[in-house]
Write a structure and sequence with these properties.
The complex is a heterodimer of chains A (about 230) and B (about 110). Chain A has 4 helices and 9 strands; from the N terminus they run ααβββαββββαββ. By secondary structure, chain A is α+β, with helices and mostly antiparallel strands. With about 110 residues, chain B is mostly beta strands. Classes of the chains: A alpha+beta (about 230), B mainly beta (about 110). Chains A and B meet through helix 1 and strand 1 of A and strand 6 and strand 7 of B.
Chain lengths: ~230, ~110
């Protein structure tokens, strides 16, 4: 305590300036981690390659049909954006694919979501962005399966299957909201996407591993409302 | 609201900026560079309690009636935030996903006496 100094409001001995600063910094850290529902700060993250990040943000910006539909992280200015459901904390999540096993006919992509977010939020919508390199001439059939680990985490089950005819190179999107929503109870939530093509024409996605065409998922989530205590 | 000066004693807003680089968080918090963790401090003598515009509310009006009726019944008055705004964060989570969120009521813009 500083000599003789007393807090004018409550009379408690005032902290020495250095101690007070340490206490306030500790309080700031604890306050932010609590509000982000994180037990501790994330260990050193592996940021995505700059090319992948720029391509994803450019893609999302091109996707602009109206700013209301645009994920908040792209709306201009750092400030908060009034949105429906204001008052409940909302999240935008951008998750890049990790490459999984692949053969001449199939490619596996993994998307991981943090346990804290999966438990404490409800997924409002989630969209998968895939880039097709130049397919062979003519339409090319591709099957996209969304796989999710079973509760034991030993096997995977098919959450949904979609067949596409890839006509030309470029980005395509797929709604993966229900599949991401179903991950909420998992210990380490992970969505696996399996792409399968016919043997003889190779995979339109395999051809291009460059960062600027790395598949990604954009999800919007909102903090779960605390269960209302029913008045007896 | 009033910002605290070097020797303020009355209720005011104390600015306090947390630089994320200073606490070693700049590697996982992408934006912003810091957090204005301002807080309220100072005295709220009875003549300042509930002055309209500081923390005027029905609750305050009722308290004023009680105080007016009998000073002994007067309750203490506290220096509290009267205006707050969200903290917008863009950060990497533990799976290196990029997350953006607005944490409500994290930044105190002004203080007043209840």
């Amino acid at each position: 305590a500083a000599r003789g100094e007393r807090c004018p409001a409550c009379g408690v001995a005032a902290l020495a300036p250095g101690t007070q600063r340490d206490v306030l910094l500790a309080l700031a850290k604890q306050s932010i981690l609590t509000k982000l529902r994180l037990p501790a700060r994330p260990s050193a993250p592996q940021p995505p390659a700059r090319g992948a990040l720029l391509a994803a943000l450019r893609r999302l910006r091109e996707q602009r049909s109206d700013t209301a539909a645009l994920p908040g992280m792209l709306r201009d200015g750092p400030g908060p954006h009034p949105r429906p459901g204001m008052g409940l904390q909302e999240y935008e999540i951008l998750s890049f694919a990790e490459s999984g096993s692949s053969t001449s006919r199939t490619v596996h992509l993994h998307f991981r979501f943090s346990r804290e977010l999966a438990r404490s939020t409800e997924i409002l919508q989630a969209t998968l962005y895939l880039f097709w390199a130049a397919p062979s001439p003519g339409a090319q059939p591709v099957t996209i399966r969304l796989l999710r680990p079973d509760p034991a985490g030993t096997n995977t089950t098919v959450a949904s299957e979609t067949r596409l005819e890839v006509q030309r190179p470029g980005w395509t999107t797929l709604d993966v909201g229900p599949a991401v929503r179903s991950l909420s109870g998992q210990e380490s939530p992970r969505l696996t996407v399996e792409l399968e093509v016919l043997e003889d024409c190779g995979s339109p996605l395999l051809a291009d591993h460059s960062d600027s065409h790395r598949p990604f998922v954009v999800a919007q989530a909102r903090a779960r409302t605390p269960h209302r205590v029913r008045r007896r | 609201g009033v910002d605290c000066g070097a020797d303020s004693r009355m209720c005011c807003r104390q600015e306090f900026f947390v630089d994320f680089k200073e606490i070693g968080w700049e590697d996982w918090i992408i934006q912003p560079e810091g957090y204005h963790m301002n807080y309220c401090a100072g005295l709220c003598p009875l003549h300042m309690a509930g002055i309209p515009g500081l923390a005027a509310s029905f609750h305050t009006a009722v308290l004023n009636r009680i105080k007016a009726a009998s000073a002994a019944a007067a309750v203490d008055s506290c220096c509290v935030p009267t205006q707050r705004r969200p903290l917008s964060l863009l950060y990497y989570d533990r799976d290196s996903n990029i997350v953006k969120t607005d944490i409500p009521d994290m930044i105190v813009d002004s203080c007043g006496c209840t």
